[in-house]
Amino acid sequence: MEEEYTALLANQTWDLVPPPPGGNVVTGKWIWTHKRRADGTLDRYKARWVLRGFTQRPGVDYDETFSPVEKPATVRTVLSLALSRSWPVHQLDVKNAFLHGTLTETVYYSQPAGFVDPTRPDMVCRLNKSLYGLKQATRAWYSRFATFLVTLGFTEAKSDTSLFIYRHGDEMAYLLLYVDDIVLTASSPSLLQRIITSLQQEFAMKDLGVLHHFLGVTAKLSEDAGPPVADPTAYRSLVGALQYLTFTRPDITYAVQQVCLHMHDPREPHLTALKRLLRYLRGTVDYGLFLHRSSSAALVVYTDVDWVGCPDTRRSTSGYAVFLGGNLVSWSSKQQPVVSRSSAEAEYRAVANGVAEAFWLR
């Protein structure tokens, strides 16, 4: 906690001021977490002072909150290209990333618990920088980081604004920003190091070295089949975790999509299907997505669809798989938005989805 508080002071995160008359003062709380390595072992203990964003008032403490998040297909595509070109790939860690965001709104909040200034206990903090928990924290951090990358010569990719591209002569680099996780690859180790050095001069950033770890038969289920589950929150938590797992497990995409359909009102048969999926995962913990070096850069798309497969809405579920030079970089299993009146119509809708993804990737 002392380390976190010291970092907040060093970053000049706030100024102590008298409470605003009639103004809104956001509250906060300390959060303690265990940071673990990729193999699950304990890395370190961490404390963070987090604001209660739900005490903010729209139009007073915040306006826009949207911040772009890259598509998983972008990550896989960049990694596939870097691998095929034998480029070095590093992961970077920004210390207290959200604290670098500059606020455009005026936000007041109470002094951190346990660290109240004894000479000015009645004063409140007026934020100069963003802070974890604020509704606009992610947006402020993204704007700050993207603005600096532009000064280094990077440009935002029009197809995915979380991908930044650097081109100068024969030199080229890709930078992926996933909230506060950064993956950087460049055409040469010297260019990679120059970019890292420039970033470290601007932000408290650590080079974690070569990238090792990043992010991390079903039955047809009817909406009202069986009684409601006893703990719907646990169901939603498990399904949310499985959505992250589909990042590297295309084999469970369809099954996860099916259990996701019932998060609003999970029933016992849905929970049974979820448990079956967990048992499958327990027996296939060594499965994953393997990217290999390829001399080809061709995009190949496969599509498929069922017809009126949903017993409730009679809508079809279409899917596609996109390969870049032999590496699977994008896939989807999604219910179609309307009812198809024939299997041919359903197939054409599935093909259209696959073609649209291929155009986006290209």
Alpha-carbon distance between the termini?
Answer: 47 Å
Proportion of residues in β-strands: 25-35%
Strand arrangement across the biggest beta sheet: 8-9-10-11-5-12
**Could you name the ranges where pLDDT drops below 50 across 5 or more consecutive residues?**
none
State the helical fraction.
Answer: 25-40%
Order of helices and strands: HEEEEHEEEHEEEEHEHHHEEEH
Give the C-alpha Rg: 24 Å
Q: Which structural class should the secondary elements be placed in?
A: alpha+beta
Organism: Paspalum notatum var. saurae
Protein name: Reverse transcriptase Ty1/copia-type domain-containing protein
Domain Reverse transcriptase Ty1/copia-type: 11-218
What does this structure look like?
This protein is of the alpha+beta class. It is built from eight helices and 15 strands. The longest helix has 19 residues, at 343-361. The chain is globular. The model has no long low-confidence stretch (mean pLDDT 86).
